[in-house]
Amino acid sequence: MERIKREAYLSILRNFKDQQIIKIITGIRRCGKSTLLELFQDYLKESGIEENQIISINFEDADYEELQDRKKLYEYLKAKLVKGKKTYIFLDEIQKVNEFEKTVDSLFINKDVDLYITGSNAWFLSSELATLLTGRYIEIKMLPLSFKEYLSAFEDKTDLSRKFRDYLQYSSFPQAIQLFKINPENIKLFLDGIYNTILFKDVMQRKGITDKNTLERVTKYLYDNIGNRTSMKNITDNIEGLEKNNSYNTVSTYVQALIDSYIVYKANRYDIKGKEFLKTQEKYYAVDVGLRYYMLGQGSGKDMGHILENVVYLELLRRGYEVYIGKYDDLEVDFVAKNSKDTIYYQVALTTRESAQSNNSVLERELVPLKRINDNYPKYILTLDDDLDADFDGIKKINVLDWLLMEQNS
User: Fold this and answer.
1) From the CB of residue 149, how many other CB atoms can be counted at a distance below 10 Å?
2) What are the chain's domains?
3) Distance (Å, whole) CA 190 – CA 171
4) What sign for the dihedral angle of Cα 177, 183, 188, 191?
5) pTM for this predicted structure
6) Partner of 127 at 20 to 30 A CA spacing, among 102, 149, 230, 404?
7) Which helix (H) or strand (E) holds 66?
8) What is the pLDDT of residues 95-109, one digit of tens each?
9) Which residues pair with residue 230 across a beta bridge?
10) 368-382 burial, b if ≥16 CB within 10 A, otherwise e?
């Protein structure tokens, strides 16, 4: 299968190569974590690292089932260490190993070991592991393909609008591209496998959830309401059959489990004027729009404004930002993107073009919250309009496809 080079993630691994720090790669199943490890191993070999200096174990491979015992795993790895040289150890889907954190900690102590591990849910980064390894690991949060990465898989780079629609409808999971090239109808079965594995294996079995029907209804509700302000009460009020005395706690548990499995992402609200984080009326986004089409049907594509918002949210995460929903008095800014150096404000709109009846209200509605913000941080409006980029007193309007294909600095 053709491997798409994930340069943004590879560059992080290259930068931390040989550093005395554990590299932990997290992300939803099938987003490309295993392939990333393979690509990095190829880089090591091209850099002169010998084959026997690389140990790679995928714990989803039945050949390694007995190594899910942490003591056996440690003895196996210890016996393969190359004396006098660095040994690069890759442990894929490490959460399958019982008390794996003790093995990881023992390996970390060895200065001749460079350690890389992956996991498909946030539980393996539990408080116990985080406490044990405080200050000794970095987390690389991996997502399915960006539009730029998706486009790199095609020789023909023309008709971006058509390819963007395919990117949305037929999924951003790497393997979906291969299926799309053979027969797009196969993608539904592929997504069905991902969905069922996550819900019934990662979520239900691991969290001890027995009510499959309610879990599915909560998942579909969140996917149907991407980009809408949501509370646990909103969800419970819209799901019939829950026992009222424990519905809030039940839904809250289910939502957190979905977040921990990376199938759902939560964006909290931020008061720009008061410079404080808010605890209510957050928004939720899908890890993959194609998965949303699979779950809700083709009619869900009518909500293109929120779909576009979902795409921008995920792209900002890929670019290393913490992303919040902005509040300024009674106005809303779609996204406040923050990192250690910068803050950027974004409005996302399907179009700012006006009909004869609207009297330019759409553009003004998007501009007003940004104009209110009294600071010098960059401000953007992202739309699917194909006219020339524009500037409104320092607020830049950019076509979202152009923005998605830009270098990751805007």
Assistant:
1) 22
2) 7-141 (3.40.50.300)
3) 10
4) negative
5) 0.95
6) 230
7) none
8) 889 888 889 989 999
9) 282
10) ebbeebeeeeebbbb
